[in-house]
Amino acid sequence: MPIPRIYVACLASYNNGVLHGEWIDLDGSEDVELRIQEILKKSPESDAEEWAVHDSEYCSHLGEFCGI
After folding, report:
1. What is the pLDDT of residues 21-56, one digit of tens each?
2. Phi and psi of 15, rounded to 5°?
3. Residue 64: its pLDDT value, please?
4. How far are the Cα atoms of 5, 10, 32 from residue 15, in angstroms, in the given order?
5. Of 8, 17, 25, 53, which has the highest C-beta tally within 10 A?
6. 9 burial level (CB within 10 Å; 0-12, 13-18, 19+)
């Protein structure tokens, strides 16, 4: 069975024309909140605080601004 996952994007980067984000598996092996914070810390934008789901696989019920 395929593992559901989401692509979390940094909105500060996105708003400045830079694509910065990563895929996160939703199989329970990762702490999603922690991974989002790690993605934002690696952002090229110093004021990275907001994020959005810009893509997903095998979890079509999620929206762009879903909560954790």
Report:
1. 999 999 888 899 999 999 999 999 999 999 999 988
2. -70, -15
3. 54
4. 23, 9, 23
5. 8
6. buried
Only one residue has tokens 């994020």, namely 51
pLDDT of residue 28: 86
Q: What is the rounded distance in angstroms from the CA atom of residue 7 to the CA atom of residue 25?
A: 9
pLDDT value of residue 33 = 94
Judge whether 27 and 60 are in contact, CB under 8 Å. no
Exposure of 38 in the CB half-sphere (CA atoms within 13 A) = 9
Cβ atoms of 44 and 66 within 8 Å: the answer is no
First CA to last CA distance, the chain: 23
